[in-house]
Predict the 3D structure of the following.
Amino acid sequence: MEPEPLDDDGIWCQLLRPERAASHRGRPALFLDRDGVLVAEVGYLHRPEEVRLIPGAATLIAAANHAGLPVVLVTNQAGIGHGTYGWTEFQATQARISADLAAEGAALDMVLACPFHADAEPPYRHPAHPCRKPRPGMILHAAERLGLDLAGSWIVGDRAIDLKAGRAAGLAGGVQVLTGHGAAERDAAREVATGRFRVLGAESVAEVPALLPLLAAS
């Protein structure tokens, strides 16, 4: 297994398709939360055999790939901070996700994961780490690395914190899905909307491909 791609701040930052990075400069991106959005929520997912793509996830990502839009996964990983599992398990789980996507003709461009949490074990204890959603650090890091147009980008999440991170990063909008924790988060997600940040609701990622023209036109 390849070395863990941790940056100087302890954030997982993995570029999966470096050969395409140059073509992404100046483009809007599709940001995705992982658990409950891309894959089924199981609670601290860290076993590859428990990975289940949510129906429609691969179709959405493949459509974004075809449109030339970078797809960036941004995920809080408190389980690492709490010591429930480590980066080795995270990496193996991500490898399974990538393999399952590839089997359906889809690929992520970048994966960022933040293990920091206010109640985590050292060295991951931090009262308000700038990369832990709802703060926008992971999105900003991806934008700097890939040269993305954040003003035209969207984020898809099941929780209000996903949308808040997108709003704080200056994205165009967010889509809140009802999978994962989404059913309990719909009202809170709607309240994230402002005059500059649109919030749309969807049953799942299967409904999101209709939004891709908004990104491609940016």
Summary: Residues 12-216 form a domain with the Rossmann fold fold (CATH 3.40.50.1000). The chain has seven helices and seven strands. The mean pLDDT is 94. The chain has one domain: 12-216.
